[in-house]
Design brief:
Layout lengths: L2 H17 L5 E5 L7 H8 L4 E6 L4 H18 L3 E9 L3 H8 L5 H7 L6 H14 L3 E6 L2 H10 L9 H4 L14 H4 L15 H19 L5 E7 L9 H8 L5 E9 L15 E6 L7
Parallel strand pairs: 2-5, 2-6, 3-4, 3-5, 6-7
Antiparallel strand pairs: 1-7
Helix pairs in contact: 3-6, 7-10, 10-11
Length: 288
């Protein structure tokens, strides 16, 4: 499905829902209290880093990412930086070449390892950054190296060349196996043979790499907004934890996205996951 039919469908659901007193989504603070968008924007504008956790196929989350990015640009101008899990660090060169007009959009999209929902969900952000001459950072680890960690542990990274290690955070990798985000992965159902002691390490190397390239591209007076799956920053762990290990003084604001049958209040399991929560009706249309 093309971008615009999806956007129109989302807006139809949103505005129809509000007119009938059945909202498609509501916003909550860390204590589970309802908040308005303007309140979130007011707190975010003074942050160093915003970690925006999405559900990858959630149309409301993607719409709010774009709206928030536009509003932050109005406030911060070229002091705004964008970064995303959806781009791997070894694709930074071609991303920069595209932004600098050295390669065409067709060539860029053919050569970068784009997610299947790129055109509907992430292309608007990329094109907005390109149009307004904003830095867009490819933060994620190349997937082949995450697979290497899954099979050999962090030790496997030692075998890489210096050229390959340029796409990674400094080795050895900081890791806390007792963090619930990683510890709970060993208990995940349906993972079969994938669940072993290296499985959460493969997740951690993604978080460590994203945090590394966020810090490499952030500087004082800048605001970097990063888009990623909610699990990568929920409960103030993962990317958030790595960022704080390296720069505890950072002002980081986290946003998460959840889906519930009833959005009027957060369920107990969804409270306190982030500074702000987007609670979306589970019947909302998805982008795939």
């Amino acid at each position: 499905m093309k971008k615009y039919p999806i956007v129109l469908l989302v807006l139809f659901f949103v505005f129809t829902a509000f007119k009938t007193n059945k909202p498609a989504y509501l916003l909550f603070n860390e204590k589970g209290k309802k908040v308005k968008y303007d309140k979130i924007l007011d707190q975010i504008k003074d942050a160093d880093i915003v970690l925006f956790g999405e559900l990858h196929n959630n149309a409301i989350a993607h719409w709010l990412q774009f709206e928030l990015t536009k509003d932050l640009y109005e406030l911060k101008g070229t002091n705004l930086i964008l970064g995303a899990e959806m781009f791997e660090s070894d694709n930074q060169l071609i991303l920069d070449e595209y932004f600098n007009g050295l390669v065409s959009q067709t060539r860029f999209e053919a050569e970068v390892r784009l997610w299947n929902n790129y055109k509907t969900d992430y292309k608007p952000l990329v094109e907005f950054a390109r149009k307004n001459e904003l830095r867009f950072v490819a933060t994620n680890i190349p997937r082949r190296y995450a697979s290497l960690v899954n099979s050999k542990g962090f030790e496997g990274l030692e075998e890489l060349s210096d050229e390959a290690k340029a796409f990674l955070p400094p080795i050895p990798i900081l890791y806390d196996s007792e963090l619930p985000a990683y510890k709970n992965m060993l208990k995940m159902e349906g993972m079969g043979s994938h669940t072993n002691e290296n499985f959460p390490k493969a997740q951690a190397i993604k978080d460590a790499t994203m945090a590394h390239f966020i810090l490499e591209n952030w500087s004082p007076e800048k605001l970097l907004i990063h888009y990623h799956g909610a699990y990568h920053s929920d409960n103030f762990e993962s990317i958030y934890w790595y960022l704080k290990q390296h720069k505890p003084e950072l002002n980081i604001v986290t946003i998460t996205t959840v889906s519930q049958e009833d959005v009027s209040e957060l369920t107990e399991k969804n409270e306190g996951k982030a500074h702000f929560t987007i609670c979306v009706d589970e019947d909302m249309t998805t982008t795939y």
